[in-house]
Design goal:
The protein has 2 domains: about 100 residues, no CATH class; about 40 residues, no CATH class. About 45% of the residues lie in helices and about 15% in strands. The protein contains 7 helices and 4 strands. It has a two-stranded antiparallel sheet with strand order 1-2. It has a two-stranded antiparallel sheet with strand order 3-4. α1 packs antiparallel against α7. The radius of gyration is 24 Å and the shape is elongated. The two termini are about 35 Å apart.
């Protein structure tokens, strides 16, 4: 049986350990920018407020990097998923863990303190957030894999 000798194994292990803690934040940030741009493209525009409220965020919690794209507009979920009778069954995506419930009746609302009354049966879904991620999933995976491989190559001295 041939004897195999590996030289400098501890140096290689140290370099590989450096990759674990390598700064992946720029890669995650780039991924969130891709999703943000797509969400803004897909977003239903009435006055531009919803589109302008879509932002990326990246934060590090311990060894976890969290990238998200969000909007704080209260009405964003109604646009994304639809509402009422008209919205039921119009959301085209299956999202694990998501259960959608819709009203089975119409309702009256008044946006101006009782000056005007409107009757509605809701509206169809106009998804923009989930499809922004879904449409770019492969692109983001490739971006992160290529970026991580580059960091790995640099860390072990291959480039």
């Amino acid at each position: 049986m041939a004897k195999v000798e590996i030289k400098n194994i501890d140096r290689l292990i140290r370099r590989l350990e450096n990759v674990k803690t390598a700064d992946l934040v720029p890669l995650i940030n780039k991924a969130t920018l891709i999703v943000e741009a797509q969400a803004k493209t897909l977003c239903h525009v009435k006055d531009g407020g919803l589109r302008a409220s879509i932002h990326p965020s990246v934060k590090v919690e311990g060894k976890t990097i969290i990238g998200k794209v969000y909007t704080a507009k209260e009405y964003a979920p109604f646009i994304e998923f639809g509402t009422g009778i008209n919205g039921k069954g119009t959301y085209p995506y299956e999202v694990k863990g998501l259960t959608l419930e819709y009203r089975d009746t119409g309702w009256v609302y008044t946006p101006d303190n009782g000056e005007t009354f409107y009757y509605t049966e809701g509206m169809v879904a106009r998804p923009f957030m989930y499809p922004a991620l879904h449409l770019n999933k492969d692109k983001i995976n490739k971006l992160i894999n290529n970026g991580y491989n580059e960091l790995l190559r640099k860390s072990i001295g291959g480039g």
